[in-house]
Amino acid sequence: MNNAPSLACHYAIVRLVPIVETEEFANVGVVLFSPQARLFAFRLLGARFGRITAFFEQLDAASCRAVMRDLREELERVAQSFRALGVDSRLPRLDVAASQALWADLLHPRESLLRFSSARVVMATDPRARLDELFSLYVERQVVPREHREHVLERSVRSLLRTARLGDRFVSATVGNDEYHARFPFVQLAPDDERPVKAIKALSLTQSDPVRIIDHGGQWIMRLHALRKRGLLPPQVLFAVDGDDQDVSVRGVARRDVIGELRALGVRVVPLLQRPALLDFAAGD
Question: Which sequence spans correspond to the domains of the chain?
């Protein structure tokens, strides 16, 4: 049973409004602030602007990239301001009044291509995971938050670890630093300095078409590459994947391509059904 407390999370949707007169917009990101969790975080559309440029003919991909780059820089500055108020737990307490004022100022109506929706509130036991769900719903338009496939896979891994009495070794944690980081559902920390030494990620590669398989796998390939480039990747990383190794369709080829690229980054990849291999990794030094 999960006894983690449910925390209030304030969030807003980032909207690109190229033509003010028509008030048409596209959702391009989500920002989230949870005073109880002492967390400010955001997710923004990264590189795939085809849907936006197809709808707004006066925009091109280069313009979208420039606008989103400026927004990311602005939000990074806002994140630094939140940290100075104690939002990341480095200070003894959070300056609640100042942080709420900063949040309100961020969402204040502006005359620019980028605007924020009105603030909304949602409860969550894991605010970062909820941010991912909100991004998936509002930006990626994946209206399946009731039972996301990878949540099911993660529960399977968690149950396996608990049955083998290895669950206490792993926690859900963010790996990286302020410049770049990624969240893993299972991370083992060094007992002396809490440095991530081992990470496990359940990855679904059974999407409905090869493009989705490659896109989803590519997100994690990019994250792993960025972590390794900065010396932030844990020494041992395992991805437990679903799908059929013998699938000869285009979906199977796409799946094997993703697995090959993961392994090229030094990551161990095993089928989720190969439980002994996963447990050996979890139990090993």
Answer: 7-138, 149-283
Tell me the per-residue pLDDT of 92-145, one tens digit each, with 9 for 90 and over: 888 999 999 999 999 988 777 888 998 998 888 888 888 988 888 888 764 333
What radius of gyration, in Å, describes the C-alpha atoms of the chain?
20
Q: What is the pLDDT of residue 147?
A: 38
Q: Cα(250)–Cα(274) distance, rounded to whole angstroms?
A: 24
**Closest to 232 measured CA to CA, from 165, 174, 146:** 174
**Residue found under tokens 């409905």:** 208
Instruction: Extract long-range pairs of 168-174: CB within 8 Å, 24+ residues apart.
Output: 169/282, 170/198, 170/200, 170/282, 172/126, 172/129, 174/128
The domain defined by 149-283 carries CATH number 3.40.1350: yes
- Which structure tokens are listed for 113? 């291509």
Contact 127, 115 (CB under 8 A): no
Query: Residue 191: how many CB atoms within 10 A of its CB?
Result: 8
- Report the DSSP beta bridge partners of residue 187: 171, 199
